[in-house]
Amino acid sequence: MRSVKSKVSAAMAAFCGVILFIGCERRELYVYGDEFFSVELNVDWRKYADRDPDGMTVWFYSLDDPSHQPYRSTTAEVRRHELYLPGGHYQGVVVDYSPEEFSRQQFLGMDYMETARVEATPASYQPDSTTVEGEGVPKGVNDLVNQELFGEPAWTALHTERPDVRSESGLYIVANQPEQMALDTLLNKEIEQGEYGDYIPWKKHEEYQSSIHVKQLYAEPTSIIWRLRIRVWIRSGFNSLWQIPASVTGLADGHFLALDSRTEQPCLLSVSGWEYERTGSDSGYIGATLYTFGLRPSTILPTRVLHDGTEIPDNVVTYDTRAGELEPDYGDPEWYWFYSDNCVPRDVRLNLSFVLRDHATTRNYHFDVGDRIVSYDAQQVLRIDLGPDYFSPDNPDGPEPIDLPDVDAYNGTGFGADVTPWVDLPPIDVKF
């Protein structure tokens, strides 16, 4: 009896092994209920870059049951991705790379469509990250620079509590500049009910099982990161420049992914990497490029305004980048015909602190530049150009031109010292 049972057990084990071997070699076996449907997502990255990213992450949020956990998948297959969803209506999100690979951005509130967002990673809640570096920097100069640069109320508040974004000081969260990233939002996609049965991806190339329906979805991700170009004219003192700690306040700190809109939370971005353009013996421009999520929606005024502040009637055709025109160079006549959805001036502020070549003298300037922002939507470029016209006497509301004092260059030592001269003395005999 035992022998028969042993033989039966051995036969059953062998049979199961053969079935397992055949199943593993031919295909994976998926058994789903009749509520599942196969979706094939095809992605074209050519609107974002000239080559495919290394990976992508996909979220699908249920519009029928917002409390349901979203479907999420990260894959290295960036042109086509298969997923299985219950029938219903969905909002889809496609993002380049894996979120875990970002070092300057963080993904928050991803469980719900209304809160899913990407934000610039806070560098610090203090402006100490905007500092003067180099040999010969006097002790305490960074405290003075930052205190003047961001204002006394803000400086005091930052060392006692986290700043309030509604504070009139203009100082908000100090954030890193975001990295490049692309996004496509698949709006209100309907997934029908599938049929019951084992799912086999393909019987042969491009031929699906008749027992399962395949929904085709298409995505064309585009960049959500804007470039902010800053250019400031210095009338005199150009030769005295050494370092320029600076910041821009009032820009959006992130982007809502599923809603495809910028956040209302403002942040502070440090400005570095200045370029210099001499226009005279002691005058010129300083310029820098930042990466940002762009303007906050509530700050954009619903009027079309020329660079010089003149409002454009709706029936006048302009060189609008929304029609595909390219961003002109500085000095190009077309520059003045590009208009902007301007902000209220105080909504965006440019803070500059000039540390001169003696490593000690500082000058601080604050410019409310919301009405100076020019937007090139087709290329996602913002420009703040503070040229001679901005400082001109013809502009009664404009600030005084930037005139920096002429100072002696730092001499390379931190203190003064005299050398005692050699004195001729008569020879002295030394006895051994």
3D structure, described in words:
The chain has 432 residues and is mainly beta. It has 2 domains: 117 residues, Immunoglobulin-like (Sandwich); 215 residues, no CATH class. It contains 4 helices and 26 strands. Strands 9, 10, 16, 17, 20, 23 and 24 form a 7-stranded mixed sheet that branches. Strands 4-3-6-11-14 form a 5-stranded antiparallel sheet, with no helix packed on it. The radius of gyration is 32 Å and the shape is extended.
Distance between the termini: 116 Å
Main pleated-sheet profile = 7 strands, mixed
Low-confidence stretches: 21-35, 152-163, 195-205, 317-324, 414-418
Shape, per Cα inertia axes: extended
Broad structural category? mainly beta
Q: How many helix segments?
A: 4
- Proportion of residues in β-strands: 25-35%
- Gyration radius, rounded: 32 Å
Count of domain modules: 2
H/E element sequence: HEEEEEEEEEHHEEEEEEEEEEEEEEEEEH
Helix content: 10-25%
**What is the strand tally?**
26
Overall residue-averaged pLDDT value: 75
From the structure above, extract its key features.
single chain, mainly beta, Immunoglobulin-like, 7-stranded mixed beta sheet, 5-stranded antiparallel beta sheet, 26 strands
Task: Please provide a brief summary of the model.
This protein is mainly β and 432 residues long. Helices cover 11% and strands 33% of the residues. The strands form six sheets. Strands 9, 10, 16, 17, 20, 23 and 24 form a seven-stranded mixed beta sheet that branches. Strands 4-3-6-11-14 form a five-stranded antiparallel beta sheet, with no helix packed on it.
